[in-house]
Every structure is written in structure tokens, then in C-alpha cells.
Amino acid sequence: MANIIRIGACLPRLRLERRAMAQAMGWLVPGAGAGRGTRTLAFWDEDSVTLAVAAARGALGGDSAESLTFATTTPPYAEPQNAALIRAALRLPALCLTQDATGTPRATLLALQAALERDAPALIAAADRPVAPAGSTAESRMGDGGAAVLTGPGEGFSPIWAAPVSARPSCTGPAPAAPRPRSTGRSAGSARRAIRRRSRPPSPRR
User: Fold this and answer.
1) Alpha-carbon distance 56 to 68, whole Å?
2) φ, ψ for residue 188, nearest 5 deg
3) Parallel, antiparallel, or unpaired for β 145-152 and 67-71?
């Protein structure tokens, strides 16, 4: 079983104050900007690939890897493969195995678990730019950033939780409830009579 050799991280320089979020959306959502301080905010030219590259450089530290997995829930491209772009930016060997892991918040843990079960050097680069409804609690809590882990047979440490990842369904938050129809205070009979009066053609003038 492989060990974790090195860890790298990347956080954007920009910060978004939660107080500003409350001032902008508090009139619509009472809980907007929940919490104190700031959250990380990627610049317009920073996406999950660029954040993953910056984090992976810190994790490699001059070493190389035989495989590269890019884990994210916000991939910037459907085609081409995002991991192939990261491999080229890191100048890893051309025969390095690359793959994207996405579609679930567990993508990073699944990729890390698979890397720890093999002896070859492997690089897991994860990054996200989560998108949440304006004024929601998720917008206040979730920030932009990236992290990377280099695993292999060399000296390092093995996480104590190295066990199969649970396959139970997971979601980032509850589904939004359907809005309730607003009551007009009219009974069903009066509403039908009002509709008939509106649909009745006007009588011709004499």
C-alpha cells in the first residue's frame, strides 16, 4: 500500500467579505452572508484547472508521477480532457496516465483511495469553483481553491482512514422546496365566476 509523500495547496489571493454579501442580498435573503470574515474568490481568469496546476506543483516538489487524476465538481471543459492539460502544464512524462474524476463531491476521496491501493507514484490534483444560489448559506461557506497529493512507495505517512469509501448517496444540500401558491382570499366559486366574466366578449354598443 502506498503512502502520502507530499501535499500541496493553492488559494486565490482575492477575498469576498461576507458582510458585503449580506449588504447586497440581505433584503432578499435574511441569512445572506452568514458568518464572519471572508471567503476565497477566484479571479476571472482562474478556473479549477489553473488552481489544480498551482497546487500540484507544490505537491510534486521536483518529483514525477506515473498517473494523474484531476478531481473536481466544476470542470471547465467537457472536451478536451482536463487532466491532460494539467499534465502538459506540469511537464509530466507523455506516457503518464491521465483521467478526470467528477460528478460527485467524493471524487477526490475516491481518487486518493485508488492511488493509495497501488505502489506506483500517483498525483491527485483537486480543485473547485463552486456555484451556489446568490445569498444562500452555501455561497457564504464554500470558497474557491485547490489541493494536491503525491502518493507512492517512498517515505511518507498513511492516513488512518484508509478504508473503502462509502457508496451511500450524497448531495451538497437539500433540494429547494417548491414555492407555495399565494392565496387570493377568494373561494373556488367566486374565482370561476371572475374568470367567466373576463372571458365574456363585450356586448356591442347600440
Assistant:
1) 10
2) -65, -40
3) unpaired
